[in-house]
Amino acid sequence: MRQIVLDTETTGLEWKKGNRVVEIGCVELIERRPTGRTYHQYIRPDCDFEQGAAEVTGLSLEFLADKPPFEDIADAFLAFIDGAELVIHNAAFDVGFLDYELSRLGAHYGDIRARARVEDSLLLARQRFPGQRNSLDALCKRMGVDNAHRQLHGALLDAQLLAEVYLALTAGQHEIGFAAPVDTGRSVARLVTLQPSGARPALRVPEDDLALHAARVAAIRAKAGTCLWDVAPDEVAATA
């Protein structure tokens, strides 16, 4: 499954008041693992920021003056997200702005939900943590995601943080290393043929792999109190 974790920054809170998108950041996941592919674009809005909006993003009209307008980047952006599942925090906000931008280019562009499924991580967080603060900053703190470097809202940085939060929120997979990019260069396939009555071949695990495994198990144990490798096989079967 291909997922795109997406965030936007805008000139204000409502597209209905003519506010525009000024930044898009996307992070690609394949089978819930980051691939290293990202999409990041600053956009010239051709309108002013609402009061306070520029301070939140750290962007200015002067900085954006030489950036392309949305119509110049629309095709490349849509090509990146087409057919994927979009993971967005407070999806109604970002999708509303992106649909507004597309509508300005003509009906033939359609809308975001016609091109991609949308998963709202804010709704997922509210289901899991009802009655609690579920902003991205609050979730980073709750899920153990380091966001100390997030001084301002930035689309790509927020998408990267949201990717970590989403993996932890939905399946806890970043706890066992699934949030790291896949290093296919180290993957080696070995075919072992077993004789029905013969002894099983002895496989030696490299010392550095054993050390990495031990460190990961220790991290899981420190955070969760236990981990699957601490439980005897018969106990696992009993709880399955």
Account of the protein in words:
The protein is an alpha/beta fold and 240 residues long. It has two domains: 2-172, Nucleotidyltransferase, domain 5 (2-Layer Sandwich), CATH 3.30.420.10; 206-240, no CATH class. 38% of the residues lie in helices and 15% in strands. The chain is built from nine helices and five strands. It has helices spanning 53-57, 61-64, 70-81, 91-103, 121-128, 136-143, 155-170, 207-224, 233-239; strands at residues 2-10, 21-30, 33-42, 85-88, 117-120. A five-stranded mixed sheet has the order 3-2-1-4-5. A hairpin with a 2-residue loop joins strand 2 (21-30) and strand 3 (33-42). Helix 5 (121-128) packs across helix 7 and helix 6 (136-143) crosses helix 7. The longest helix is centred in the last third of the chain and has 18 residues, at 207-224. The two termini are 26 Å apart. Mean pLDDT is 82; it is low at 173-198 and 232-240.
Low-confidence segments: 173-198, 232-240
Percentage of residues in helical conformation: 25-40%
CATH architecture of the largest domain: 2-Layer Sandwich
3D shape: globular
Short description:
The chain is an alpha/beta fold and 240 residues long. It has 9 helices and 5 strands; from the N terminus they run E-E-E-H-H-H-E-H-E-H-H-H-H-H. Mean pLDDT is 82; it is low at 173-198 and 232-240.
Layout of helices and strands, plus pairs?
Elements: E1 2-10, E2 21-30, E3 33-42, H1 53-57, H2 61-64, H3 70-81, E4 85-88, H4 91-103, E5 117-120, H5 121-128, H6 136-143, H7 155-170, H8 207-224, H9 233-239
Parallel strand pairs: 1-4, 4-5
Antiparallel strand pairs: 1-2, 2-3
